Amino acid sequence: MQPGHDCARRQQAKPLNLDGSLISEDLLCIFSQSHTARRSRLLLQSQITDLAGLVSMTWLWNHHSFSRPRTQVFSMSQKMNERRTKLTGQFPRTIAHPSQSSKFWAKEKDRYLRQLLISDIEEMTGREIIVYFAHPTEGINHSDPEDVSEVIDGIDGNEIDLIINTPGGSVDAVEKFVTILRQRKLDYRVIVPNLAKSGGTVIAISSQRIFLGINSELGPIDPQFVLPDLGPVPCQYISEDESQRPVIRELAKSAVIRMRQLAKKLLSEGMLKGSSSETLDEVINKISSSDTYNSHGAVIDYSEAEALGLSVEWLEPDSELWQRVWLLYCCYDHDIKIRNGRVGKIIEGARNSLARPPSY
């Protein structure tokens, strides 16, 4: 409900400036009782602008309302209002001192900020969020599924959005990662702010739907072996290379088969459930063949993912959801890189949070 023009309604509505700060109720009452309404409104606007500079809340609250239309602030559902009341009752969204000690809060402030931003996105989507964010050099490994499970313990429902950023990783670890999500009976979607390559793409296609924006990319899921003097090489090529030892060729062949079988199983049980085996094979052959993209780092953007037949949804660059997701991504990207190699991964939700050091 928007604030009205009488004192009583203003007192009930707790009107806000566009920057999120509270308007002085005394000011509102004084000017609403003025006999020169036009002059009063102009003067009130000037006074409120000055007042906002003095009593505005932290920049975090300013961000919360920077792109939301004023009407939306007052049209939240009752449930979301209750959650917002709880959130805005905490520092730094009030002038009250934090419940934690000052030094502890300062040490953990980046995490608290990210978790408030997570809660903002949850309020928009009506779904709880888990973030899996890895440094570009940190692959998915066997520690990750148990960390994800730990964070899932902090959610209430079974509908979640998984925000993921990863260069890929071990196929076995990826399988366990997805198994954790499915054994929890979660209805999950995947949001990719920047990249979910290789094994990250496998996790994405295991979901019901993938959300992609202007900076988002998936990638081919052709497995790679690291060869001396060559670095990563597609297993498909190794399996066909007669100069390689037979055991290496067989291992490479097995890796290709395993990845394709896993991807087909996940698609058939997820976003492409009900599709024919021929349709599934067509999608898998395109996305898992080294001959399709000729590079393991090739970009599969929204248009390409849609052409492949995946269940994807486009997030407009100027949409509020994308802007909030991108801001959250930038927080993780900054927080990991600024720590000079002390943090390799962050897995967290609005309640639980875990950080892992780099694996090297």
Number of helices: 16
Supply the CATH superfamily name of the largest domain. 2-enoyl-CoA Hydratase, Chain A, domain 1
By DSSP, the count of extended strands is: 11
Please indicate the count of domains: 2
Order of helices and strands: HHHHHHHEHEHEEHEEEEHHHHHEHEE
Portion of residues within helices: 40-55%
**CATH fold-level topology of the largest domain:** 2-enoyl-CoA Hydratase, Chain A, domain 1
Q: Please give the radius of gyration in angstroms.
A: 25 Å
Give me the side-by-side strand order of the main sheet. Answer: 9-5-3-2-1-10-11
The 3D shape can be described as globular
Task: Supply the CATH class of the largest domain.
Answer: Alpha Beta
Task: Write up what this structure looks like.
By secondary structure, the protein is α/β, with parallel strands linked by helices. It folds into 2 domains: 7-88, no CATH class; 114-356, 2-enoyl-CoA Hydratase, Chain A, domain 1 (Alpha-Beta Complex). 49% of the residues lie in helices and 13% in strands. It contains 16 helices and 11 strands. The chain has helices at 7-13, 25-32, 37-55, 59-64, 70-73, 78-88, 102-125, 144-152, 171-183, 199-205, 235-239, 246-269, 277-288, 290-293, 302-308, 320-337, and strands spanning 128-134, 159-165, 187-192, 195-196, 210-212, 217-218, 224-227, 231-234, 312-314, 345-348, 353-356. It has a 7-stranded mixed beta sheet, with helices on both faces. Helix 7 (102-125) packs antiparallel against helix 16 (320-337) and helix 12 packs across helix 13 (277-288).
